[in-house]
Design brief:
Length: 449
């Protein structure tokens, strides 16, 4: 059943338009607070945010909602999503909230929820919260004497920095390593440069001047051109690009070449496999990960479990089946020995640990396989349009799968975070997959018009 508020990564949309309005945020705070009342004690929630201007609107509305149902609120300020997940557990909160639209532009925003274990909520729990949002919440408000209290928490940046540094042990030093880090004018603009510097690196930081309107604008993991230019200019050993809430990362090698999440997963998986650190002989990835990664892992004797798109679904599969490494091509890398969600900084540190151990350039360490040709295009859909239900589109998809056969893969899906349909095809024959994608894009465009 289609849901009214939640998508694949929390609630997301254009700021000050449904569902990212103060009214909805107020109800989300009330509903989520009620859903996580688990006993006769003072309940608490931690709330973090990225650097979007609309965070100043959403944060107080959530605070009002939580306090109205008797939940105490600990306000963290701008901080990465993985830090919110970590602090939810370490501060014994009943719930964690991150106000962010991740890699989207500033005029979008979102609300991500974490349970007391630091993991994102399941579909069933989100559905329960939706039902509460739609109910009459006024009858469940706390008595005047039992309202929640709210206070800002100091020192959370230092706590997260120390946590991130501990994930690679005390023996690793980045002395002599020149790093350009791009913080996307987002949530990690303070913590990422500080953590790398404290580990001994020479740090050149860009994307560290947020003004509320420039998050992800021509910087960050989805716009790596500025980082590529800076790596070349500074003759850096590596470039690290985070996104707006720092739960994903891509890397630029010393030659200015982009390294995506699939290559990072290959590096970490091989290293952990050699060290006996993989909980199971395999990793979990989404359906978007390249076939080249799957073939590479197979040669190592490792399996590849595929999940729907979204780091939440990867994490759920990892928990259910006992994997401790997984992620997405987009740069969400989940290592459940340390984190409960994607963590761009921790993933970058794991890569740096391998680079230092091998004593080889990033360009050599991070080229673990040749990816299959893969083409991804988006088709924007109008309000209420469902082109994937069109009979002509369905027939085109069936024909495309027959043409690909066993030599490739086709993924056609509606985005859970934007009003677009994504078409991805990969295989050994680039011209074949390009033709398939273009045919499907044309058919979807007609159906969506």
């Amino acid at each position: 059943m289609a849901r009214k508020y939640f998508g694949t990564d929390g609630i997301r949309g254009r700021a000050n338009h449904f569902p990212i309005t103060p009214e909805v945020a107020l109800k989300v705070g009330m509903a989520a607070g009620l859903a996580f009342h688990r006993g006769d004690y003072r309940h608490r929630v931690v709330i973090g945010k990225d650097t979007r201007l609309s965070g100043y609107m959403i944060e107080p509305a959530l605070v009002a909602g939580f306090t109205a149902v008797g939940v105490d609120v600990l306000i963290l300020g701008p901080i990465p999503t993985p830090a919110v997940a970590m602090l939810t557990r370490s501060m014994r909160a009943d719930l964690g909230v991150m106000i962010s639209a991740s890699h989207n532009p500033y005029d979008d925003n979102g609300i991500k929820l974490f349970g007391p274990d630091g993991f994102k909520l399941s579909d069933s729990v989100e559905s329960d919260i939706e039902a509460l949002i739609e109910s009459d919440l006024t009858r469940r408000l706390a008595p005047s004497a039992e309202l929640g209290r709210a206070r800002r928490i100091d020192g959370v940046h230092d706590r997260y920095i120390e946590f991130a540094k501990r994930t690679i042990g005390r023996s690793l030093s980045l002395d002599g390593v020149r790093i350009v880090v791009d913080c996307a004018n987002g949530a990690a603009y303070k913590v990422a440069p500080a953590a790398l510097w404290e580990l001994g690196a020479e740090v050149i930081a860009i994307g560290i001047e947020p003004d509320g309107l420039n998050i992800n604008r021509e910087v960050g993991s989805t716009s790596p051109a500025a980082l590529i230019a800076k790596v070349r200019e500074m003759r850096a050993d590596i470039g690290i690009a985070l996104d707006g809430d720092a739960d994903r990362v891509v890397v630029i090698d010393e030659k200015g070449q982009l390294v995506d999440g699939d290559q990072l997963l290959a590096v970490i998986a091989e290293s952990w496999h050699e060290e006996g650190r993989l909980a199971k002989p395999g990793i979990a990835v989404s359906i978007m990960s390249n076939l080249g990664l799957e073939r590479f892992l197979s040669r190592l004797g490792l399996t590849t479990a595929r999940t729907p798109v979204g780091d939440r679904y990867v994490a759920e599969h990892m928990r259910e089946h006992g994997y401790n490494l997984g992620g997405e091509q987009s740069g969400h890398i989940i290592m459940t020995d340390y984190t409960t969600t994607g963590d761009g900084l921790v993933a970058a540190l794991q890569l740096l640990a391998v680079v230092q151990k091998l004593g080889r350039p990033v360009s050599e360490v991070c080229h673990r396989f040749d990816p299959f040709p893969q083409i991804l295009k988006n088709v924007r859909t109008g309000s209420g349009k469902r082109p994937l239900d069109n009979d002509g589109v369905r027939k085109k998809i069936e024909d495309a799968n027959r043409r690909l056969g066993a030599s490739g893969r086709l993924v056609v899906r509606a985005s859970g975070t934007e009003p677009v349909v994504r078409v991805m095809a990969e295989g050994e024959d680039r011209e074949l997959i390009l033709g398939i994608v273009d045919d499907l894009v044309a058919a979807l465009g007609e159906a969506a018009a």
